[in-house]
Amino acid sequence: MMISRRTVFSGIASLLATHRIYAAESSPPSMLDEAMRGTTTPGMAALVIRNFKTERELVSGVRRLGAPEHVARGDRWHLGSDGKAMTATLIARLVERGILNWESPLEQLLPAMASTMHPSYRDVTLVELLSHRAGLPENHDDLRFFNSFYDDTAALPTQRLRYVATALTDAPVTAKRGEPAYSNTG
């Protein structure tokens, strides 16, 4: 099995970051303070998790710029679009293994949805989808559809497929293919 340089460097960076987290607990200023210095980032947290247990938790800063409440251990954080980067990384691994191809069109990747998806999306490639150049709207705008997921007891993969099938019926938001248009769908 061949391991890419990106994978090796990511592993090394993770090890170095973990070492810095351990060192930061006992030596001010912490790595979090250093990371926030010169930015408008209000607060940060870092975790070291081993065997599904939190070993270390560092926090620094405030919950909101201009507000006095400090970040605390145990605070919940909105991860925003981190899932997109994780998804793209996993897909890149599948491309490296030859399971997927960057140039594969959606109609080939999702054949069961090809007949119902908006015609403009059928030849959108995987790389266009992951780089926000597919033309998908920022969000699917049917609130009743979104709210239906709160009570849905179907398995998560089933719910996600239903979301994708519905979102791919939306008209593109860009007139020209390949123009950047941020989308929470793809």
Features:
2 domains, 7 helices, 2 strands, about 35% helix
What would the principal axes of the Cα set say about the shape?
elongated
Number of domains: 2
Distance between the termini: 30 Å
Look at the structure and give the mean pLDDT.
83
In short:
The protein is of the alpha+beta class. It has helices at 5-24, 31-36, 82-96, 106-109, 126-130, 143-147, 156-167; strands spanning 43-50, 53-61. 36% of the residues lie in helices and 9% in strands.
Any overview of this molecule?
The chain is an alpha+beta fold and 186 residues long. The protein folds into two domains: 5-61, no CATH class; 82-167, no CATH class. It contains seven helices and two strands; from the N terminus they run ααββααααα. It has a two-stranded antiparallel ribbon with strand order 1-2. The longest helix has 20 residues, at 5-24. The protein starts with a helix and ends in a 19-residue tail after the last helix.
